[in-house]
Amino acid sequence: MWTKEKIKETETAKLIVLYNETTGKSIKKFSDRATAELRTWKAIEQAAPPKIKKKRVMRFCFAPGDQFQQPRKGSLREKLFQMLSEEKGVLFSEIMEKFKWEARNTYEAVRLIHFTTNYGMWSVKENDDLRIRLIKSIKEYINLVNDAKAIQ
Length: 152
What we know:
- This protein is mainly α.
- About 50% of the residues lie in helices and about 10% in strands.
- It has helices spanning about 5-10, 10-25, 35-45, 75-85, 90-100, 105-115, 140-150, and strands at about 90, 120-125, 130-135.
- Helix 2 runs parallel beside helix 3 (about 35-45).
- The two termini are about 50 Å apart.
């Protein structure tokens, strides 16, 4: 781990090597020692490992009471809503194929259906895909969980 103190103690030749490795450049010398220390320190700070983003997962919640909403008739959201409302649900890849969406857009569309209609979501991994369906009540959710346990 590099610190400013350690950089001040390091030889200039080693600072050049460190700077070149960190930035991918190939300089031969710095104009002075202070510049060498400053640029090397900035290069090390910028080369810090990027923060790993957490993978998004679909949250699960129900609307309070019976406050469910329906998408506007004839809209893409309504078509997606109908697909997700089927008894068996729908595969994520089928949604992508039908609407010709990329994975991220498909994920966002499903998330928006959940958010705008207040229905719960149920998803099960099926081969290398995800089967998704809308559910209305906690009872339906419990039945699906029990069915999934029985299959295993």
